[in-house]
Fold these 4 entries.
Entry 1:
Amino acid sequence: MTLEVVLFIVVGVGLTFTALAALVLIVRGPTILDRMVASDVLLTTVVLSLGADMVARNHTDSIPIMVAIAATATFATIVVSRYVKRRTDSDLPQATEEAEHV
């Protein structure tokens, strides 16, 4: 085996391990924020896999797909963080009112 083949095997194993770990955290994650970070890791792993494929096959056809995945991940992160912030903000007055009654 050449050095190039060994490097691609190492990259493939690393990306596979990362994707599986992210999937486990998406399924088991205790909070929505943990799941969101894990989904970002998974999407980043997909983008890295596409980049590795472009290097291996010497093409640039996957760039639009990579940009779309990155934009989707960014937009999803913003949406989830705003949702969590609103949910947290709506919980604050209730906690303050309960503290005053005690």
Note: Residues 3-101 form one domain.
Entry 2:
Amino acid sequence: MKSNTWWVEWPTLVLLVATYAVWGGAVFWLASWSVLLAVIVAALAIAQQSSLQHEVLHGHPLRWQWLNEAMVRPSLNLAVPYGRFRDTHLAHHRDVNLTDPYDDPESNFLAGRDWAALPSWAKLVYRMNNTLAGRMLLGPAIGQWAFMRGDIKAPSRRIVMSWLAHGITTVPVIWLVIQSPMPLWAYLVAAYTGLSLLKIRTFLEHRAHEQSRARSVIVEDRGPLAFLFLNNNLHVVHHMHPQVPWYDLPMLYRSGKDRFLACNDSYIYPSYGAIFARHLVRAKDPVEHPLLHRMLDDRMPPA
């Protein structure tokens, strides 16, 4: 449901314009003063655009979805096609499959047989990836490799068209960067850093739990990261009300906090600072899904 009669969600629209302005300022102005500062600001704008792409795939900010998508289709991160992000994320919203290594496209778990088949060096990499530091350093590369490998193995027409559209819309972004004072290598660092920032949000967004309703986290952060992630830190609220715009999620959470925490079995952290303190170099979860067989049994129809 849209937030007003005219079906224009102004906070999202204004933020979208501001994000592109910040990106342009970083690439065309800051880069002539300090490449390092330009990388940092561009990375923030790239992460913000990814959060806005998430808003768009859920039907915001306008009533015309084709126009919503046109505004965010050129992915500033260069790596993830908007169409693939949209399709895999909407599949992720089938909550009964959350964390399933096969049926949840955004799961960070591996099935036991896949984990057992990995060589020792790969197991070490995945274990490092299960710390927050490892997820930020290695996560974008591992995620991109797994994402692209899956698409190459099963290249449906829809997948091919998404990648073609991504290639076409990425060309102007790269062309603008080439015309700017920002070196292309520096922009690639910014793009990777932007994806790395997003890994902070997704690091423990979901946990293995027998009840699907209890698999999504609440992080009661109200600082810069919450804004960068457009309040998606209130993740169980988003999963229960995916059509609510980002700026209404905090009020919705406050008005029904007890209900949300009862629903997710009190899977809650006070802030991202607490998550950094607990899990920067210490894994929260095993790589192998600990409850997969039980989850599959629960989804089987009765005989």
Note: The two ends are 39 Å apart (CA to CA).
Entry 3:
Amino acid sequence: MKKVFDEIHGYITLNDLETKIIDSPVFQRLRRIKQTSLAYLVYPGAMHTRFSHSLGTFYLSQKVGEKLQQSGIITSEELNLIRLSSLLHDIGQFPFSHAIEPLYLQLNLSNKILRDEIIRNDGELKEIFEEYSVDVGKILQIYNGDNSFSSIIDSDVDVDRMDYLIRDSRHTGVQLGNLDLERLIDTISYGEDGNIIVLEKGLYSLENFYISRLHMYQAVYYHKTILGYEIYLRHIFKQVVELCCPELFNTSYIKKSVNEGSLVYWDDEWVFSKLYEALSDYNTPDNLKLQIKNFLNRNGPKVVFEEVTFDKLTTPLEELVSKLERYGIPRDAIFPFEEKIKIIDKSKIKVLSKGKYKSLRDLSSTLLKSIPEYINIGRIYVDYKFVNRARDILS
């Protein structure tokens, strides 16, 4: 057994198999990918990584799994599969996580698809799985929702979300993601079709979970400055890759990199190295060099229009973008953003009260009924040198 000390959960115990997995190069890559992408530009303490989050998710899956095993719901073999699935759930994260991923979603390559590819075809992981007779197919079934306990890893109230809410809260200093994890784990269970079953006495803990999630989305994950820099980095990354290594926008090349073992060095530091190389390359267009310098010097784009609502957005962003262009703001200096973000699926929550299942609408009072199901965000960012002009145009 090996013990790793985690700043959130304390000592986390790993067996030989799990230790070999985290010691593999493809897992060590997660040490070099920040958990909250560019949040450190606003919250300097947000330097934690996907590596520590993966260990935290693993720890919580062990706690949830042990509870279910003691209740006779799962077997020891299924508990081991849950542990491995949670440990590996983020193995396919892109550099800078969700800042870069949208470029690959256009190519039908998500972090989940890349995760499955790594689990199937990374050479060192394959050797470890063969040595310990791990059934990789059963791990992939959990990810694909083909097991009754898949919801532990991926659902509205899964161990992934439990860990990142409390971990991101700790490192950003935003005291909105604190959870009563012990109470939450003790009073929830998982049903079929992704349903969350909560004992009536645990409603307060579940309410706290969703309220924390809502607040963290507003204060951290979709913070206007953090999001602006993520959009800006994505814009810069696309241009840099097209200049230096266009093969990175070929999904076949990415999958080949998994087989060859070179993907293990594709991390946040790799992105920075390409930015520095582009700055010193005489073939790099001057405008791109200026954008890279603005990004590195924290002179990124700023918001000139924002609408955040729990209802539908009322302002068509494309009309505002066209107006900015008509009045002389270059299109490549305008960065519109629009997204509908799910907070809670109330139809999936079942409350166990006095031996009977109730839906939220059957309860006389709970804050869960008042939490909005979605946040809609519409924003327009422009390069900082056009900010005053853009604001005057839109006003």
Note: Residues 301-395 form a domain with the Alpha-Beta Plaits fold (CATH 3.30.70.1370).
Entry 4:
Amino acid sequence: MPAAAAPSWIRPGASRPCTLVVCRGCCCGDARKHPGTDHAGQLRRLREAAAASGGRLAVRTSDCLGPCAQANIVVVQPSGEARRRGAKAAWIGFTLDDDCLDDILAWVEAGGPGLAPPPDTLALQMVDPPRK
């Protein structure tokens, strides 16, 4: 069976970038649940980092990812290179402040899941993905 074609935004021959999936469903991104968090500002900051990454980072949003009790959820999907090495996505909960975004962006810059260890603070915020 042939391999799936890369999405059009990936340059031919380039590795799939590390991707941040930012939950913006029923609880994540909700100013009523987390009034002290600038949800739009967080997303803007992540998108700006992706734009400045030269294709090494992508950001997308998703409807509810499931672990609502740990909102806001960001899933850090490994790059293509890291996936070939067996890396799995990391689910990070309680992504509510700039310090957490700093840690996520620094980890991605270092290679992300499978290529660099997460900062200790992120390791403490990792949550299990919902069961199917």
Note: The radius of gyration is 15 Å.
